[in-house]
Amino acid sequence: MSGPNYSIHELEKAANVPLRTLRYWVNKGLIARPIGRGRTARYTDAHLVHALVVKHLRESKLSLKAIYKQTAKLSDSDMRALLPQPTRATTADGIPAPPPEPTYPFSNWQVVTLMTGLSLMVSTRSGPSVRRIANEIYRYYGEKPLVG
Prior knowledge:
The chain is 41% helix and 9% strand. The protein is mainly α. The protein has two domains: 8-82, Multidrug-efflux Transporter Regulator, Chain: A, Domain 2, CATH 1.10.1660; 109-141, no CATH class. Strands 1-2 form a two-stranded antiparallel sheet. The longest helix is centred in the middle third of the chain and has 15 residues, at 45-59.
């Protein structure tokens, strides 16, 4: 795991667990003590994983005592394996649903291979003049063997 990354308030936001609850879990040994003390106390990705696992197990109605017994001797990678994996939506036929449409601006491109190692990208939104130029480039350079 990487070095110290989070203050207690950043850990609170990342784990979506109240500050008071995090401190209680640290006090009970469910999460390791931070690196440093007071305002300089820092938490790592491992602390975040442990907080997320404890949160998940609490949501599964396990007691803190049972959670401690289950997780006390686990490595960080074992703890990470306890995290719930995101599930992908499926259609009525059981086929994975397509990903949602992007919300960011994007454009489609056509890739025209002129020769091995050389391609031309043409926007599908381009007008007839750009397509005409792309056609001329392809006619002149397309699939000719490399010289030299």
